[in-house]
Backbone:
């Protein structure tokens, strides 16, 4: 389990640290304070710098451009410069991510190498120099070893989608389960891809329990096929309601139902790993948040999942404090981490401090 996490040179962070981390960690703070960037950084580190993780981080931000080449074929490039502090690529540009835990320390260095670096240095092999001759390169170092050692940059210092496709095909992204649930609804493809891992197991009951928080009449869930007709649609997921003869498409029941199923499926598939959730309260009415937190906390403890989530909602914060207050003895498994731009460290609230602050009406966001 991660007990501290340090970011240097990534996006808006010069040198920043989260400490006193627990199993459930809720990140709060003002807009543009870096909460989502922290989730991204954890994702990159604990996916061991996989190409798929880098692509998904830039996709979510819209850091991509498309242009037609001389053959009028559209080429897609990812603008990696925005991953670095000054939004630029130059010799010596770098960022470093580090996590510490009870049993292991992980780190990942990502830096830009220009031809002079690897043509005249002793650090890099002849094969490396020949492979990337004339190109700027994103170079990866870390522990455990990154899944790739380098990615070539295009003449405009972007990552070619075609190159990423090639590297992704040769990389196994399952070394450490890490799931990132965004503010947007996950696609039906996401649900279908991971459904087969829980169908007809005891974990399917947990997904049913999640939907019953919002609609108690739900009796069964089904996913129709592994490849829904539309990648971005909510097709292919149906539920049976008590007293109804005809199954109901889950997408017709509102964003909250889709969100609850996504959260439950993601935490189940994160067993012995990490779950990252941006704005965990998205689509949920405040009356459902306490039940949502009970589900998240109990499942994380049972499946050994560490959760990092963000919110701007006072209802979400107070609901978490209410759930903690129900416990006879605080477990010290939950913390709120307040992120402030001018500070180099987060402000950590323990379980007892959260309950006291909520009872006094003290602002923790």
Residues:
């Amino acid at each position: 389990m991660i007990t501290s996490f340090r970011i240097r040179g990534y996006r808006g962070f010069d040198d920043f640290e989260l400490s006193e981390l627990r199993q459930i960690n809720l990140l709060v703070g003002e807009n543009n304070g870096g909460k989502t960037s922290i989730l991204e950084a954890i994702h990159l580190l604990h996916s061991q710098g996989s190409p798929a993780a880098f692509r998904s981080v830039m996709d979510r931000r819209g850091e991509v451009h498309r242009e037609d080449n001389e053959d009028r074929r559209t080429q897609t490039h990812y603008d990696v410069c925005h991953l670095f502090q000054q939004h630029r690529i130059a010799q010596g540009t770098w960022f470093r991510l580090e996590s510490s835990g009870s049993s292991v320390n992980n780190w990942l260095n990502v830096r830009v190498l220009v031809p002079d670096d690897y043509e005249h240095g002793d650090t890099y092999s002849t094969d490396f120099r020949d492979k990337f001759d004339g190109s700027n390169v994103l170079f990866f170092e870390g522990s455990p070893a990154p899944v790739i050692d380098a990615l070539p940059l295009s003449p405009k210092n972007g990552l070619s989608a075609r190159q990423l496709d090639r590297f992704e095909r040769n990389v196994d992204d399952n070394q450490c389960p890490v799931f990132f649930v965004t503010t947007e609804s996950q696609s039906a493809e996401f649900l279908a891809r991971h459904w087969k891992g829980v169908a007809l197991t005891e974990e399917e009951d947990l997904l049913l329990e999640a939907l019953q928080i919002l609609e108690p009449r739900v009796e069964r869930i089904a996913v129709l096929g592994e490849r829904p007709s539309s990648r971005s649609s909510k097709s292919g997921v149906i539920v049976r309601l008590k007293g109804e003869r005809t199954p109901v498409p889950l997408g017709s029941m509102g964003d909250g139902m889709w969100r609850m199923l996504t959260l439950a499926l993601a935490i189940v598939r994160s067993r012995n790993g990490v779950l990252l959730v941006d704005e965990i309260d998205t689509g949920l009415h405040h009356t459902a948040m306490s039940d949502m937190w009970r589900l998240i906390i109990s499942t994380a403890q049972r499946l050994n999942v560490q959760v990092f989530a963000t919110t701007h909602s006072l209802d979400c914060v107070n609901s978490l404090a209410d759930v903690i207050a129900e416990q006879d003895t605080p477990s010290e498994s939950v913390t709120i981490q307040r992120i402030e731009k001018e500070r180099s460290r987060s402000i950590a609230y323990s379980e007892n401090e959260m309950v006291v602050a909520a009872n006094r009406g003290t602002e923790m966001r």
User: Anything to note?
Assistant: DSSP finds eleven helices and 18 strands in the chain. Residues 179-273+281-327+343-360 form one domain.
